[in-house]
Amino acid sequence: MATPPKLGIAARLNAYIANTRVGKRFKLAERNTTFTTELRAGTATFLTMAYILAVNASILTDSGGTCSVSDCTPLCSDPTVAVANCTGAGLRVNPPNDSCKFPPVNPGYSACLERTRKDLIVATTASSLIGCLIMGTFSNLPLALAPGMGTNAYFAYTVVGYHGSGNVPYSSALAAIFFEGLIFLFISAVGLRARLAKLVPKPVRISSSAGIGLFLAFIGLQSNQGIGLIGYSPSTLVTLGACPRSSRAALAPVMTAPDGTVTLLPGGAVSGEIMCLGDRMISPTFWLGMVGFFIIAYCLVKNIKGAMIYGIVFVTVVSWFRNTLVTAFPDTVSGNSAYRYFKKIVDVHVIGSTAGALSFSGMGKANFWEALFTFLYVDILDTTGTLYSMARFAGFTDDNGDFEGQYFAFMSDASSIVVGSLLGTSPVCTYIESSTGIREGGRTGLTALTVAGYFFMALFFTPLLASIPAWAVGPPLILIGVLMMRCVVEIEWDDMKQAIPAFMTMLLMPLTYSIAYGLIGGIGTYIVLEMWDWGKDLLGRLGIRRCLKSDSLIGETANGTNNGAHEDVKKHEVV
């Protein structure tokens, strides 16, 4: 009698865990998966979304975080003279003002931004870790969570504004996200999420993802958080850039007094170095970023797992060498400080400023509520859509579109938003990159718990994550935009009442640098185009249109009778 073949270590481990309480709790056998398959799926998911750790922190740092004018240091009127020696004739110490937050950025404010970026890396990692733990434990679904792309850009550039130049302070914006998370949690608990998502016009609902993708790609093409291909033009607004830093100039709105002195306009701000004075397309960091772009693009074409992370890692590692044209650590005060922190490699950074930074003082302002409801709408739309699409992709949905663990999945991502706001980051949501793990065979919450384990390990490598340069972050932002454009095939382009609102939504998001304005433009256009049909339907329901039709028919009948009698008279006259 032949002896059965001996099982390998992995097979024995899978068989053992499937019969334990863990295996039964996560329904490994019932969902036709194994423990090692779930580990592999979680690894694939993490590799495809790990870019968020650097990207999210970089974008949110542009808001300035909790940094303010008080963090700026006084400077001597002669920049080459230290403040301690600023006592000679014609020298004076200039106290900091609002302009210290904008280029050339005050050294004290720059130091605060660097601390904030480290805080936000940890906040992003911790909120992702907690979100994945909640999702995996309670809903038992292979879905990973992290701060959402798109909403983080809206938070940083529209709500708070670059270095706090927007209408809502960072602390008040976190309070808006906190309240939005509580509202989201409530409507998830009572089952209103799917119904609310369906209230938004279909063309706007579909095109909003594409609009956000274009918005992210536009950010990735600029120099502040990208490769720098797009620059400013005084005649056409935007033009080709990619010039080295030595050839860039900042811009500022100024006014000239009668005596010839030039001063900054009240409320004006100095921009970043966005205008190329020459040397276009020869920036070394741009071309290094393009190499990263094509690495990611090739991996996506070949369906290689972890495409985004490979491009980021390559560009980042090359940028870590000092004394090169593409170094992330130039020979400056800030560059030397960043390099000293980088050399630590392992460091458990404790959040110093962003955690618990919520402020409810701005609740009486309209901008606060505009931000709150925009966050709410985007979360209802994107997160609900992502959950349903991932469940459908995994084969979990029934004929009605519902799936097992649906209620706890909704509750998990809603509660993660609240956690994220308390840590200081933008709304946390379910990631479409979860499809990578599902494609690898992930079917249970163990996939999400595996991702959580990787995020936990990332907490110890903050120095490395804080040293990823902007030109390494730009390529994935552009290609995320490509992935988010897939939805445009669902738009009915032959129906102009569908196509025009969809197009306006997509167009306005990047060009106004605001998700909210894109949504308002799309919904407003849809309402105007549908108003005539809605008016006719309303008249019909009220019976007014029916009465008008009846009167018209009676008039036509009467005219027909009179015309008939007239013809008879004519006939008699002829006879």
The gist of it:
By secondary structure, this protein is mainly alpha-helical.
Helix and strand topology:
Layout: H1 9-18, H2 21-25, H3 35-49, H4 52-61, E1 75-76, E2 93-94, H5 107-139, E3 145-147, H6 151-159, H7 170-189, H8 193-199, H9 202-221, E4 230-233, E5 237-240, E6 248-250, E7 254-256, E8 262-264, E9 273-276, H10 284-301, H11 307-319, H12 333-342, H13 366-394, H14 406-423, E10 428-430, H15 434-439, H16 445-458, H17 462-465, H18 470-484, H19 496-511, H20 515-542, H21 544-574
Helix pairs in contact: 3-16, 4-5, 4-6, 5-14, 5-16, 7-13, 7-14, 8-13, 9-18, 9-19, 9-20, 10-11, 10-18, 11-18, 19-20
Let me know the number of strands. Answer: 10
Using the CA coordinates, give the radius of gyration: 29 Å
Share of β-strand residues: 5-15%
> What is the spatial order of strands in the main beta sheet?
1-2
Amount of helix: 55-70%
Report the mean per-residue pLDDT as an integer.
Answer: 84
Spans of 5+ residues with little confidence (pLDDT < 50)?
569-575
Shape: globular
Q: Give the termini distance in whole angstroms.
A: 119 Å
Secondary structure category: mainly alpha
DSSP helical segment count? 21
The largest sheet is:
2 strands, antiparallel
Q: Which descriptors apply to this entry?
A:
575 residues; mainly alpha; two-stranded antiparallel sheet; 10 strands; 58% helix; 5% strand; globular
How would you describe the overall organization of this protein?
Residues 569-575 have low confidence and may be disordered. The longest helix is centred in the first third of the chain and has 33 residues, at 107-139. Helix 4 packs parallel to helix 6, helix 9 packs antiparallel against helix 18 and helix 11 (307-319) packs antiparallel against helix 18. It is globular and about 90 Å long. The chain contains 21 helices and 10 strands. It has helices at 9-18, 21-25, 35-49, 52-61, 107-139, 151-159, 170-189, 193-199, 202-221, 284-301, 307-319, 333-342, 366-394, 406-423, 434-439, 445-458, 462-465, 470-484, 496-511, 515-542, 544-574, and strands spanning 75-76, 93-94, 145-147, 230-233, 237-240, 248-250, 254-256, 262-264, 273-276, 428-430. The protein has a two-stranded antiparallel sheet with strand order 1-2. A two-stranded antiparallel sheet has the order 3-10. The chain has a two-stranded antiparallel sheet with strand order 4-5. It is mainly α and 575 residues long.
